[in-house]
Specification:
globular, 20 strands
């Protein structure tokens, strides 16, 4: 995977570098991808007594999983395809630095994905998509709380809630159907204004007329530090890491062969592909064509002293959030559908920072670190979790902006699949061959 994170090293930054196995010796379970999905899958499989080796070209939690907005967004049950994005497209695309951007030169390649996205947003799919996402979120919260306790990382959890803002009565009213749907699934919230909103976040611009406070929303101290700490727990259980770039995978009757960039061939009895935005390129080698696109997300992490932010602040009309972290104040979000080859356009992170200065008068924008990451996104807003066409190969990718949130649930589902156990969710909506 690819990225340019400049975060501090975490508790597992000194990764063990075991001697690679001989070419004739097969791995028990190999995982391609050292992001949060691969980490959680490796951890749960290791807890079950499996021998696991993770392959990644950079390290554990060094790329896209290192720079996200740090949210456990368990209440974010509305599928992206049903959030009115298609209606917003003309307005958003008119602003090259707005919440959604598509580089004109990339549009022809993106068009088939956009058509699938539009079809996935049809009313006939709504109830199924909503129920599937809600079920996944319920499992995600259960699995993450358990994993935090078992790995000793619960102190990294922050339970301060979130605060979403509206700049007009019309914008607030437009949000109400979505909140009603969340209420159906037992998600708690309350709408606030005036002194109550100001008490939840002092120093706000008066442009915001109302807000919604979600007390159950959770964040983590820093996503990179959390990922490395969970991996340290997995290492204690015997999980291994190998620094290697995977060029391709080859199916076999008794597992798969991983071909590394140096030509080394490594056999695996069972293989999990969890390589984020690059996963579909590996899946092609196994006969699975999966329409994955890349939501390129941008942020700037400021020093923690930049502003006293009490909890995650969500500016949904502008497509970004502000999160207080242990390592700084992160201003980021938005979506650029531009693939994995184009260079970063950091004008997008600068535009969000300019808005943040207007929304939080007194914010000090100096000393920030810019970052861009690749969110792997599928047109129906659901990840791919399931078996490949090739025997003994599994997929876990395509979580969009919910990778951190859903990673522990995905690890549980993959563990059950690999061990031949009955998973707690119906995996039909996530099957790789659904497209």
């Amino acid at each position: 995977m690819q990225g340019n994170s400049e975060e501090e090293s975490g508790p597992s930054s000194a990764l063990r570098a075991p001697s690679p196995r001989s070419q004739g010796e097969a791995e028990d379970i190999a995982i391609i991808g050292g992001g949060i999905i691969g980490i959680c899958a490796a951890t749960l499989l290791s807890e079950a007594g499996c021998s696991v080796t993770v392959f990644d070209r950079t390290g554990i939690c060094e790329e896209t999983s290192s720079g996200n907005a740090a949210a456990f967004a368990f209440s974010d049950v509305l599928p992206l395809a049903h959030k009115g994005m298609i209606r917003q497209l003309p307005k958003w695309l008119a602003d090259p630095l707005g919440p959604l951007a598509i580089p004109p030169a990339y549009l022809p390649k993106l068009l088939p994905w956009l058509i699938r996205f539009w079809r996935a947003g049809a009313a006939k799919h709504y109830e199924t998509s909503l129920a599937t996402q809600a079920g996944m979120m319920k499992l995600a919260e259960t699995e993450w709380m358990g994993l935090l306790d078992r790995s000793g990382t619960r102190p990294m959890l922050r339970e301060d809630g979130s605060l979403e803002f509206y700049e007009s009565e019309a914008e607030f009213r437009a949000s109400l159907p979505g909140w009603a749907e969340r209420q159906r699934f037992g998600i708690g919230f309350r709408h606030v204004e005036g002194d109550e909103m100001a008490a939840l976040q002092p120093g706000l611009s008066p442009r915001f007329v109302k807000g919604t406070f979600v007390p159950g929303w959770k964040t983590v101290a820093d996503p990179k530090l959390l990922g490395k700490a969970v991996w340290a727990y997995a290492e204690k259980l015997g999980a291994r890491f190998e620094h290697a770039r995977v060029e391709r995978v080859e199916p076999g009757a008794n597992g798969a062969t991983i071909v590394l960039a140096d030509g080394t061939r490594r056999k695996a009895r069972k293989l999990l592909i969890a390589a984020g935005a690059w996963s579909h390129l590996l899946a092609k080698h196994l006969g699975d064509r999966i329409p994955l696109e890349t939501e390129r997300g941008y942020n700037t992490t400021l020093p923690a002293s930049a502003f006293d932010v009490k909890r995650q602040l969500i500016f949904s009309g502008h497509g970004f959030v502000i999160t207080p972290l242990q390592t700084g104040l992160r201003v980021g979000g938005a979506v650029e559908l531009g693939g994995i080859e184009r260079p970063p356009n950091f004008a997008r992170s600068k535009a969000m920072l300019e808005k943040a200065k207007r929304f939080l008068p007194g914010l000090d924008p100096s000393g920030g670190r810019e970052w861009m990451g690749f969110r792997p996104s599928l047109p129906d807003s659901l990840p791919v979790i399931g078996a490949a066409r090739a025997p003994n190969v599994y997929y876990a990718f395509g979580h969009g902006h919910l990778g951190l949130t859903q990673s522990a649930a995905t690890g549980r589902l993959i563990r059950d699949l690999v061990l031949g156990q009955t998973p707690p969710l119906d995996l039909t909506p996530f099957r790789p061959q659904r497209f």
